[in-house]
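During the second half of the funding period, the structural biology subgroup turned its attention to how the target accommodates small molecules. The most pressing case was zinc ion, which had performed well in the primary screen but for which no bound structure existed. We therefore specified the complex as follows and requested a full 3D prediction, including the ligand pose.
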Amino acid sequence: MILQIAIPKPVYTHFDYLPPLGTEISCLQPGIRLRVPFGKSQSKIGILLAIAENSTIASHKLKSAEAVLDDVPILPADILQLLQWASRYYHHPIGEVISTALPTLLSQGHSAIIQTILGWKLTTSGQETLQLASLAKTAHRQQAILQLLQEHPNGLSQVTLSNSLSNIVPVLRTLEQKNWITPHLVEPLHLIKAVQSISLPLPLNAAQNQVVNRVCQHLDRFYPCLLDGVTGSGKTEVYLQIIQEVMKNNRQTLVLIPEINLTPQMVNRFQQRFSVPLAIFHSKLTPYERLQAWLLAKEGIAPIVIGTRSAVWTPLARPGLFIVDEEHDPAYKQQDGFRYSARDIAVVRAQRAQVPLLLGSATPSLDSLYNAQQQRYQHLILPERAGTAVHPHFQVVDMRPQPRQSLSWQLVQAISRRLAKQQQVLLFINRRGYAPTLMCYHCGWVAYCQHCDAPLTYHQTHRNLCCHYCGATRLRDTCCPDCHQEQLSLLGQGTERIEEQLQQQFSSARILRIDSDSTRGKNAMHTLLEHIHGGEVDILVGTQMLAKGHHFPKVTLVGIINVDSGLYHADFRAPERMAQLLVQVAGRAGRVHEPGEVIIQTYHPDHPLLNCLIREGYPAFAQAALHERQLAQFPPYTRLALLRAEANQVDLPLQFLQAAKEHALQLTTPEIQLWGPVPAPMARRAGWYRAQLLLQSAQRDVLHLLLSQWLPHFAKLAGRKVRWSLDIDPQELL
Ligand code: ADP
Ligand code: ZN
Ligand code: ZN
């Protein structure tokens, strides 16, 4: 009997081992962990994938596994199969795929046991005491505890109890001596809310009602839906009410959101609506808390699981619904290592589990819109904002007559009007720091990063130059190193510079900057958001962080400082991203009181896609952009795979890719086009020279067949000096 085991190594197949000596066969189920000898004197932890009769390895070379670590599979069959499918689809080593999906502690061999903590439960005689009201009138505190425990028949942790009453230990001891309460282990408190008020479901409007009904009529089958609703149209409310139905059937829901720490409001709404255990994955969990949340999901204790990208792999005992909020967000695609798309994995999971899937967005990806047009998804539309808020009004400002101004006079006037009315203003600029370029006007020298083909950004706060690609920093030059001129100019604007200009122009306004520099501290974002909601801020300046899911009810004017980088860009997805960002930022304006106003500054006021977006809205833009994609034969009309390579020497990546291409040409059919190899748009990054080869095909199967025949040859072609990676369905061609 041969055990096929996945080990986290960059190897495409499993490793074969013999069972540990003396193991009962019944213990060896796929999905359990084993400790196995690996290499010289090491041992590793692997996952049993399958049991086979034969091995390609000579029997005298096979080693025995050292130990079985689990009685029951830590990866249930559905997840194990999903991971194996993903390993084939993304052409990524199975061991590494599995370690992406497992909590670190499990990969390290930690036991998979749900931690319980000390709590208390009412005994039968405790219940009788309460019913008979036989407690002395003086024993208020005893009575309070008994009552709380009666409301929670599954017990409450001591920590929760002491949140409600101070100094409870002596009281608990008395109650235990009287045999009215008994110690009882409960699940960890940080994952389970026990005592909290809940918010009631809102009466739905007609469109919301229709969506909820349609999905709830199809809870027992794969029912993929694109929930297409403008910001504020009540998508979250729709999620909540469908989840409620799913919970009635005793099934679990997995909710994916792009960014959890930036959007505490989303999680709050779930917490306020449902007084059930929520397993929430966020980046501030300790490894131990992460493991606990994972186990609560796997064992079916948490009916709702919320998390970012990697939460898509969380096992669910009884899956009932998958939700991907803001499905267009590029954050769902992992951009290094195992480059999977969590949105696409969610689709596959829902299909395999035969349950509904909701892909929600105010600005659906062109991929999903195309799938809806092809009738692969139900296209469910929420056309109007819930409540009373109205759509914002757009104005394009032509910057050509006022070049070198970062704030046009139109924008400045609009800001003054809003400030006079004590309303909030939000300015969006896609760049942090003070200025993206330090330049010598005399000879044209520009401060570049030593390690990357990229100019350095000047940061006023640290008074240094910083590379946004590799993080290198250095002092600002005082004179030009080439011509020794002393006057160097800072070109362009970042958040810091806009903040400074606003301070000069609106000296009495309270200005707040939000970017990854100003929100670095642990609770920084939270604190800043509190300032904003408390009305302590007049003007907000920020990067795309501001576009993500926040509700700023007091903001009535949004200014987009510069939209142009999205209009002309090497990446064919740039206009889509630009439009999504624009609509999302605009969606922050005028949610409650007054119609919002959006001012967009551009040097290309006639750009057709920009105009289409502003005049006719996102759906019309998406149609036009899809049409362009079709003409250019880009996704979703074709499939792409990108082979990237990098090395310390400039020629090596191109040489490897050229050799790989020639190899592919022997295998490939006319249905696959190969483009390149070419240097990457940023040809050097962090000291590595980079190049890429793009594969394109209208037929996914043909492409994947080629890849699986081709890939095994890369190691030899690449040699030791070239690092390569394959990106299936790449989201960025950089
Ligand atoms: P989205 O997720 O589409 O941005 P939300 O669900 O957050 O929309 O709803 C936006 C706002 O409208 C929220 O303040 C929410 O409480 C409110 N809302 C949603 N549905 C309704 C409804 N049916 N009636 C009244 N208010 C609603
Ligand atoms: Zn110079
Ligand atoms: Zn750099």
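Two results from this model are relevant to the next phase. The chain is about 30% helix and 20% strand. The longest strand covers residues 672-685.
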